[in-house]
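Note to self: the last two entries modelled the partners one at a time, which told us nothing about the interface. This time every component goes in together.
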Amino acid sequence: MPDRPFTIDTFTSLDPKVPLGPLENKWSHFKNNSRLVSPSNRKNYHIIVVGTGLAGASAAASLAEQGYKVSTFCFQDSPRRAHSVAAQGGVNAMKNYQNDGDSVFRMFYDTLKGGDFRSREANVYRLAECSAHLIDQAVAQGVPFAREYSGYLANRSFGGVQVSRTFYARGQTGQQLLLGAYQAMMRQVGLGKIKSYSRHEMLDLVVEDGSAKGIIVRNLDTGMISRFAAHAVVLATGGFGKIYYLSTLAMGCNGTAIWRAHKRGALTACPSWTQIHPTCLPQSGTHQSKLTLMSESLRNDGRIWVPKQKNETRQAKDIPEEERDYYLERRYPSFGNLAPRDISSRAAKERIDAGYGVGKMKNAVYLDFKDAIAVQGLEVIKRKYGNLFDMYKKITDVNAYEEPMLISPAAHFSMGGLWVDYELGTNIPGLFAIGEANFSDHGANRLGANSLLQACVDGYYILPNTLPQYLASMDDKKLPVVESPEFDAAEEKIRNSLQQLLDIRGKRTVDDFHRQLGKILYDKCGLSRSAEELSKAIQEIDELMALFYRDVKVPGKQNEMNDELEKAGRVADYLEIGRQMCIDALSREESCGAHFREEYQTADGEALRDDKQFRFVSCWKYDKERPSLVKEALNFEFVTPSERSYK
Amino acid sequence: MKFELKIWRQPNPDAKGAFQKYSVKDISPDMSFLEMLDTLNEELILKGDPPVAFDHDCREGICGQCGVVINGRAHGPLDQTSTCQLHMRSFSEEKTITIEPFRAAAFPVKKDLKVDRSALDSIIAEGGFISVETGQAPEANTILIGSEQVEEAFDAASCIGCGACVASCKNASVALFTAAKISHLSKLPQGQLERNSRTKRMVQAMDKMGFGSCSNTGACEVECPQGISISHIAHMNKLYFRS
Ligand SMILES: Cc1cc2nc3c(=O)[nH]c(=O)nc-3n(C[C@H](O)[C@H](O)[C@H](O)COP(=O)(O)OP(=O)(O)OC[C@H]3O[C@@H](n4cnc5c(N)ncnc54)[C@H](O)[C@@H]3O)c2cc1C
Ligand code: FES
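The predicted structure of the combined assembly is written out below.
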């Protein structure tokens, strides 16, 4: 490409607001010195929390418990349905109940290394530091974590670590944690301290004099547009992996809230860093609307393999042991089947692309429990994973106790999101981003079971300590009002953009565009990337975007329930986000974590980081054509980034 | 495969609804039921007809957002399976598939197959929680709970809040939903202290929200996608009379 599709901004300097002092004192240092709002004053502050997943519900409950007035918004018909509900495997915490060498430092280091040294030390350390409390809180709320016969809490292992620090509730850890947070939130609703708006979608952020003052929402049941003003706005809107169309996310997951905030000035960070999860059900046809995750916990006992022979036609059970390639065990002997997700997914893709894939579409690998059942017995395996095997049977009609599961990589988690500082504030004063919506702790690859943790820690412990500092230091403490030129303009803009979509009256459905975008991104900005393919992708997305505005067909009207109009707005944003993802991936000329650039790899095909040139977080300033790159340098004061090896 | 469909259409809460007939073809047996509806909707949109509004989100049986009555049965023909987990291989081509919304006075129809289930949230807000605030919790392993006891609480806690129990009850009672939450919390040591007041408030909330009363027909248990047992209702009643 003759011209780079982005500019580099060297003037803007970003303050990550990391407190001084030794790593282990930073968070206490912040708390010791932060400004507070006195209990009797708190009811005068109004806070908007968009999103009621683990991050939003826990933040809303905790802030309301402190005495603030909170309004929550979600697009589902109940706060309890946020996609956190779907998390299966578990949540990490440093309790060292297993006495197996765990420590806050080790958890910090595992997470930092897991993210390929592309996150802020101080944030990651705090995540590990606050993790133990979360388990206490969840147990007190009634979360039925798995127990040993003795009555003590049980643990399992997750990928990328060599200790057992994962707490779990059958295969429904997310559901149970979310119900705990939801119930805490509903308690505050009952007490009149939270007002909860379900089926309300945030469509714009209102910024006045440089600070966030409120949002514009659309009631999805009636189509009514309304305005909400507050002292601060918190975005807890989750991940946008649904941009790939086929993903493990829920149908409604979207990037709209963060993207519209971005267009109002909030920086995004590393938007292209997407985790492609290795153990999902493979695509079985063109009709498919989502790919179901099979929990990573299965890799504790299941062994992953492909046939040694290309284009194998025999059934799995007819392939003798010596003709099976347990490629993770072969390539990564010390972590084996529990190698981190980015590495496992890439290894699967490598085998599939080389012609060793199995299944109807030759797009899968085997996950086999034969040995585990032989050693531990059927009953033990049933007890550990029964509901996952049931789910597998429901979807595929195959009994995985008798033949191996077929699994394949699928888009799963957005490491990227809105840029936030140590206090979880974006660069717009008064706008905060928590949970999967932000870019913070996971760097270029997230470790399994760390993101329920991050969503909870952000919501229960960090934000309730950092947001008051912002409120206490506001110059003008009056509640903003919705009768302002900024609110007027934002509302009008939203009405016009909705009408614009309806007026196109083209010939292709919204889903049709979404599927095409998803395919471009999966092929060119997915598991592996190259300058050539990314440049092509940008061009293809530009063309698709132009076509979308000429040819999309959105039936119905604005002022009614209109599912297609909802989707059209989200896909319009996805097209823009997708373009920025490709630019982000193109600008980073190194491989790190989930970001694998084909041009930058070691002789044996591992990611080749370039710490000299790329030890920074890529933050993006909005521009329709050429966004500009602002670099937040990552300073490693306490550890030395090493080559990330799991061999 | 091809299918004849009879679907409840109702443009808004005040309109009088009616069934309409559709046919779909080129349906693969591996398609999920909702993907079959997606296919129908894409056709309708391109033809210029209004697509069918139906609820769904996770499409993996856990969020509780989906739920329609299929051939007279909430969530369709399979036991312990939510609408989104159904696949077309479970249907035979010969029979017309009738699809209608969950019906109950407390669940007014919003549009087509979507109903308003916010009454379920209101019941939880009345007492479906343990009153612990952030920061108050003691060290987790100071509360020992036997693994069997946890599993029992879990069986109740696994409710996805879809409302199929209400839709399948001839009295439109919400007893199974409410009892599941009461059981989940009261079977754990942490939930003991508020047990009686919680039960009282939640039971009263059911009446206040306009749900019918339970006459122990057991229909709810049969159609619950999580297989939650009606024994929880007996447990709730026992606690209620004690409180
Ligand atoms: C299938 C699956 C399994 C997983 N398993 C694990 C696991 O085992 N362990 C682990 O640690 N992590 C796991 N994860 C990741 C983890 O679940 C998520 O990262 C985490 O739950 C995100 O929480 P959240 O609160 O940030 O977002 P969510 O729970 O997604 O909540 C987002 C909220 O924002 C609302 N929202 C979004 N957009 C708007 C808008 N425009 N207007 C209004 N409201 C809006 C939604 O309604 C919702 O309430 C899994 C993820 C998936 C998809
Ligand atoms: S769509 Fe979530 S349970 Fe069916």
